Amino acid sequence: MKTADLTGLPPGVPERLESEGIEELYPPQAEAVEAGIMEGESLVASVPTASGKTLIAELAMLSAVERERGGKALYIVPLRALASEKKAEFERWEEYGISVGVSTGNYESSGEWLASRDVIVATSEKVDSLVRNGAPWISELSCVVADEVHLVDDGHRGPTLEVTLAKLRRINPDLQVIALSATVGNADEVAEWLDAGLVRSDWRPIDLKTGVHYGNAINFDDGSQREVPVESGERQTAALVNDTLDEGGSSLVFVNSRRNAEAAAKRLAGVTDRALTRGERNDLAELAEEIRGVSDAETSDALARVVAKGAAFHHAGLAPRHRSLVEGAFRDRLIKVVCATPTLAAGVNTPSRRVIVRDWRRYDGEFGGMKPLNVLEVHQMCGRAGRPGLDPYGEAVLLAKDADTMDELFERYVWAEPEAVRSKLAAEPAMRTHLLATVASGFANSREGILEFLERTLYATQTDGRARLEQVTDAVLDYLEVNGFVEREGGSIAATGIGHTVSRLYLDPMSAAEIIDGLRAVDGDPTPLGLYHLVCRTPDMYQLYLKSGDRETYTELCYERESELLGSVPSEFDDVAFEDWLAALKTAKLLEDWASEVSEDRITDRYGVGPGDVRGKVETAEWLLGAAEQLAGELDLGTSVAVREAKKRVEYGVCEELLDLAGVRGVGRKRARRLYEAGVESRADLREADKSVILAALRGRKKTAERILENVGRRDPSMDDVDADAAAGGTTTGGRPGESRGGGEDGEGQASLGDFR
Ligand code: ADP
């Protein structure tokens, strides 16, 4: 099927596709079109990684918008990092009259501006929250795409996607649903749930050979062998990377932890380093400099060091800017090897000549040890092998140390079918939050109504009896009632005022209950640490792990600062509760450090985390403290002011006295501190103070100074003819006034946590 023959798209779109080299639809895409995706039919497309699922979604969305004037499409992404990527991809359609918007940011807004967009990109959590906040355009949707729909199987986030799809279909019974899935064991069941057609295919745009390396060769699934000898003292991975390099190819190595990703990248940098041309070396040096500039954390430095040698690591601890720099340079073949945790396997488009799945077991706390990866996960990693148009075929290689392991790996992964997708909805934490939202948003007002709504979920499709659903529903309703989030009268169930607020704030009801109890226990003014600890105790915060030795450290801290903590310390004999309390304290201490101007690299070092983690904790704390402020206000708890201040401090990463200054755009935590030390202590001072003093505190950077003065509303912000007052530069100034330091950086790292602000 030729793209030129497609009808029903906005004028110019088929030509545009052709100009991108998409002249002929891939077979699964053609099947999808035949199944009616361009006429509004729902479809589950279960096809391998990299075989063009995005275009299936685009054809459906564009024709839906074209068909129904004012029609609207929603594209649900599994990860926030993918939202902006997808938006950028879809923005090329703006030229043909299709407007695109991405909805990120706070959970509690209804995103009214999105009403004017034709295509909207958002995570399932964000869509869920938009529904809870009554975004009016939700009812105008004509097409919704669920990317990576097999993730409904994810115990943590799957239920949100599942319930969100059920709600969207309930609001709009004619809704077209396009569900994109990896190849899974039971795509037919997913299709049945969504009342959708099914396209299921193993077709790939480029051949994939999967094999196991053992001894001195890779043994492939097609029976062929490729000799890759391993020198004595050499590691298998190094030999395989080297072998790919000899042919001018790149490798993607999957490992099971961040630490392993960093260590492997460091080792493999020794291999890639030898293969670089002078030109590549120069380009890489530049890239390394850019990476260093992203943040001043140790991770930044470590990444820059390996990148200079042509290698990189990739994991969730990286700042988003790091990630995109690494992905871009890998696609441009400047970086020759990337060592990644499985985050990269999902979604990000980074094809590579050879994929090496080094670790096929990963530590799993619940499992209590090393657990083999799912077939689906390993297949997704393998699917990253082979760059269409560049490589003759892709190679995916698992590693075995002995013949038995080789047999096991063939059995377990190479020949194996991927698992079936199973709903994880019927678990209490998921039901707690979704049942409250279901009642609060008016989808049901009785026990019967709730059960009827739940009939629309995959869970119901997959289980015959309602027994389990009824049991969880009853337990959860009791919980919600006891905590004052719902009221029952006769047969009817309604959300209370506070229940509505909790649902709109997107809090787990258990988090809300914890916060409310904590704030009620306050005697006097709570301290920031007390408040940070409170929100870190909630299930909405991912706490830091306690490492060896931490138990003692934080037990000591706990008793030292017990008077600040809200609520009473659990008994040390209650192991689980006490550990949880300490882990929350460790996390709270990180936040307190951040809000006390401890430098980012000290924090990452002290807590053994990456800059991306600090960013994550800070953002979550901001959200939870914002929610706490609202709850405190609504319940008249009299703590709103203290909560707001603790929130502002963590938001800007500054001590109390800098709050006024740090709120000015362009200032940030380090500049605020230097201005303060130079005697410029407030916004009013910024408007009045001697410009030479301000300029000196900003290390002589005139543009920056002017921008800041403009932002604070100074009448004449111009720095022309102003000289920095050398005497007023503050105590920490290293750079000479009037001069910028190497690379145009003033050492500010104003972007505080990577490109986080
Ligand atoms: P998936 O989402 O299935 O992993 P993508 O949609 O990212 O895969 O597609 C992988 C690559 O294939 C993209 O670079 C895309 O531009 C390209 N592509 C998709 N369809 C075609 C086609 N029909 N002809 C040529 N290239 C295509």
Largest sheet report: 8 strands, mixed
Counting helices, strands and paired strands, the structural category is alpha/beta
Helix content: 40-55%
Write down the CATH class of the largest domain: Alpha Beta
CATH superfamily of the largest domain: P-loop containing nucleotide triphosphate hydrolases
Continuous helix count: 31
Which band does the percent of strand residues land in? 5-15%
Number of strand segments: 19
Low-confidence parts: 729-757
The outline comes out as globular
How would you describe the overall organization of this protein?
Helix content is 45%, strand content 11%. With 757 residues, the chain is of the alpha/beta class. It folds into five domains: 3-200, 3-Layer(aba) Sandwich (Rossmann fold), CATH 3.40.50.300; 208-414, Rossmann fold (3-Layer(aba) Sandwich), CATH 3.40.50.300; 428-504, Winged helix-like DNA-binding domain superfamily/Winged helix DNA-binding domain (Arc Repressor Mutant, subunit A, Orthogonal Bundle); 509-655, Orthogonal Bundle (Sec63 N-terminal domain-like fold); 669-735, no CATH class. Strands 10-9-8-17-14-11-13-12 form an eight-stranded mixed beta sheet, sandwiched between helices. A seven-stranded parallel beta sheet has the order 3-4-2-5-6-1-7, with helices on both faces. A two-stranded antiparallel ribbon has the order 15-16. Helix 6 links the parallel strand 5 and strand 6. Helix 9 packs parallel to helix 11 and helix 20 (509-520) packs across helix 25 (611-634). The longest helix is centred in the C-terminal third of the chain and has 24 residues, at 611-634. The model is unreliable at 729-757 (pLDDT under 50). The site of adenosine-5'-diphosphate has 13 residues, from helix 3. Adenosine-5'-diphosphate binds at residues 21-22, 25-26, 29, 49-55, 349.
